[in-house]
Amino acid sequence: MTDFLLLATIFLVAGVISVPIASRLGLGSVLGYLIAGIAISPLLGALGVDVIEVQHFAEFGVVMMLFLVGLELQPKSLWEMRGQLLGLGGGQIVLTALAVMAIAMALGQPWQISLAIGMVLALSSTAIVLQTLGEKGLMRSDGGQGSFSVLLMQDIAVIPMLAFLPLLAMPELLDAGMEAAGHGAEAAGHAAEGDHGDGGDHGPSMSLVAGLNGWQTALVNLAAIAAVLGIGSLLTGPLFRFISAANLRELFTAAALMLVIGIALLMSLVGLSPALGTFLAGVVLANSPYRHELESDIDPFRGLLLGLFFMTVGASINFGLLWENIVIVLAMTLGLIVLKAVILMALAFIFRIRGADKYLMALGLAQAGEFGFVLLSFTVAGGIIPAEVSEMLLLVVALSMLLTPGLFILYDRVIAPRFVASEEREADDMPGDGKIIIAGAGRMGGLIDRILRAAGHSTTMIDYNSRRLQIMERFAIKTYFGDARRPDLLNAAGIAEADILIVAIDDRDGINQIVEYATSTFPNLHVIARAVDRDHVYDLWFAGCRDIIRETYDSSLRMGRSAFEAMGESRDTAEAMIAAFNEHDQEAMLAIAEVHQPGVAPHENEAYVSRVLELQGDWQAALAMRINQIRSGGSGAA
Q: Residues 67, 284: contact at Cβ < 8 Å?
């Protein structure tokens, strides 16, 4: 227990110190984590920590990340991406593998080793690229979508790669590889199951496909994928409705983890990539009303595990071997980056990715990937790549990943600014409709949603009442389940890109909480807030909201207008009288808002009481005179 706590403390302290510093310097969180790993590497070595073992555990963050990516991707959108998946993603893998193979052969390596090296280095870092694109808000750009297509295709390609690589084994390397691999042989078993980040078990493991022939394995794989799709589309709704009845947030977190870990386990048992399985589950759940709640529950675990993974990458660099071969390793690393960038630039031209986006994709995907660590161990144990070559390649993989944040900084500070002017001109042609988030699907929120949708606007309506959500589903009204008071859920719903936030929940404290967070964090966001009474208006005004609607105020005005009409006033006269009252009331509220003190009852606020008494007489007299003038004019007109 003490060893675990010591190790956890070391990683947490390193991350907490280095990441804020790196972020403040504009280097990004990924580079901060990598630097933290490098800094603690000597300490981990002195303590005898198996960094690779920790890295395999942390790779589960990639599984969680792809689940969250799937939640953001509608099945229809995935089908529309098929051209980029096969053409852009497939082309990058094939061209990079062949180019690296040709270079390795030119340097004297046999074709089998050269092809294996090409396949290993063709992959890019899903963890670093998606994390950085998400932080910078570039996932929805053409370059971000192209990068995602390539990374997804690489995850899919891992499965046939693992099946093909053993065919390249060389008998003279097999015995030496089994002896030299050591720990890597265990990682090879981990990789042979198609495991891309399950945090796996490196000892003897269970398998549902052991001893099966090819077609039987294929049937089991198809059955597992069908099970994932079935669970996502049929069982998650009833499951989460059952859990929500308990009104315990921690149960939702447990259920979300159970879903992701269970699917990853199933994929591992049938020899498929857990990352690919959870991604498919995320796509199936993209239309689920529980999507945002799942995202907000999983995201903290994803962030912590990815941070741990990046630190292990920095800590795993063999600096002794690096200094001995510094020129060769740097040349190989820079050569790989340039080669992959050139190939990606050519593919970007073919697939019409223009402007800064082509540089974003080319620089972002120019590194080797985290799966290279496991795959290289697998090739050594399988007698495919010599151990001494593998050690050099491990340095190339780690160093290329370490340089990737620098490539993104190059894009941000040098390349992207050159395209700003043209991108701003293009933005003039974009549609003006923005994203609208409605917090609360009750009496007010539901009606607001209907009004906006009738005008053709798209909304994201969030509500934490599972029963209400179930009823609305029966009437085909789209609502997302979640607690809008949680900042992480609002961020998952896209508040950073939204134009309007409408706070319509039936909870005074909850409304205050949401408004305070939104107005302080997103000052350019237009917030429309529901106020439960007159005093609540002052609280919301003090919190920074300037578009406040009292929940019964407008209906009271309408009832007052109806009362005037029932007493014989014309419709126009009644509306003018109500408008006069509304105008005077707003003026009085603005005057009183200046002396309001949040948390102090109005009758205990001396300044508040004095201002009300001061205005009351003059206000009543002025309003009565105005209404009489309207009534006289209206009667005469009638």
A: no
